[in-house]
Amino acid sequence: MTNGPQRGNGDDTGSELVTKTRTVAKRPNLYRVLLLNDDYTPMEFVVHVVERFFQKNREEATRIMLHVHHHGVGECGVFTYEVAETKVTQVMDFARKHQHPLQCVMEKK
Ligand code: TYC
Question: Signal peptide location in the record (predicted)?
Fold first, then answer.
């Protein structure tokens, strides 16, 4: 895989030696976005959150909600840092707006 600038010697003599810089892709740091269980947030609300912010269908969102309900914590998705941070903020703002104590956190993979 090659990309990056093509570098010549720039002397305008028409006798350019052009080299290419080879870039090796680094794998991005990834973060899990997790929901935490609590005793008060309605199950239906959690399912709605998972559908709305994590693009899951009703069946998958219900599976995730029940996993959190039974195990205390569960993964909604894996994202790069900025996307994960945005998800956490969106979920926390939405829960607060509806006065539910639902907690959403991110964790480096
Ligand atoms: N434990 C909650 C209840 O019984 C449901 C719930 C599930 C809450 C998942 C939060 O992340 C959560 N109503």
Answer: none
Angle CA 39–41–42, to nearest 5: 110
For the chain, which domains are there?
39-108 (3.30.1390.10)
| CA 40 / ligand 1 centre spacing (Å) | 7
Name the pTM for this structure: 0.83
Residue 91 has a CB neighbour count (10 Å cut-off) of 23
- Burial of 74 from C-beta contacts in 10 A (0-12 / 13-18 / 19+): buried
**C-alpha 107, offset from chain centre:** 10
Rounded to the nearest angstrom, the distance between the alpha carbon of 70 and the centre of ligand 1 is 9
Residues having CB closer than 6 A to ligand 1 are 35-39, 41-43, 46, 65, 68-69, 102
